[in-house]
Specification:
It is a single chain. The longest helix is centred in the first third of the chain and has 37 residues. Helix content is about 75%, strand content about 0%. The chain is an all-alpha fold. It is built from four helices and no strands.
């Protein structure tokens, strides 16, 4: 592969890493900002606020991992965290689930700015993580590597 093509390929990989991490970072910041208000409903229980803190921590760690490593496991974790967050916000927006064990009922049939931004960031983060996985698969195939070998 030519030097220019390798440089272009690295630029694509880095861009996907940064965009994936950016979506996760927006998700993390919004969940940290919203968490205290949501904890008021269950101050002594697990509470939705604590779940927001957990989502934020997972998004932040996945963002760091994908930025630092840019590997298949990093992009896979980013995809799971971002897609999981998006699935949760959509589920609890449209379905009124009762409490499930320690998880409170989190039905909230409204969209507001922070929720919308978070959902968009999660969706974009998931798409960029998926694109990162596809990109790594193509790089591995082009280099004649086993798909799981890219670290």
């Amino acid at each position: 592969m030519s030097r220019n093509r390798r440089a272009d390929s690295r630029a694509v990989g880095l861009t996907l890493r940064v965009l994936t991490a950016a979506g996760l970072a927006v998700d993390a910041v919004i969940h940290v900002r919203l968490a205290p208000g949501y904890q008021l409903a269950a101050p002594d229980g697990i509470g939705q606020g604590n779940l927001f803190y957990l989502e934020s921590a997972a998004a932040f760690l996945a963002a760091l991992y994908v930025l630092i490593r840019g590997s298949r496991p990093a992009f896979l974790l980013a995809l799971v965290v971002a897609a999981g967050g998006l699935a949760a916000v959509l589920l609890y927006r449209y379905v009124d689930l009762p409490p499930i064990g320690p998880i409170p009922s989190m039905y909230e049939p409204a969209w507001y700015l922070e929720k919308t931004i978070s959902a968009i960031a999660e969706g974009l983060g998931a798409l960029f993580a998926l694109a990162g996985l596809v990109y790594l698969r193509r790089v591995a195939a082009r280099n004649g590597m086993r798909v799981g070998a890219h670290g």
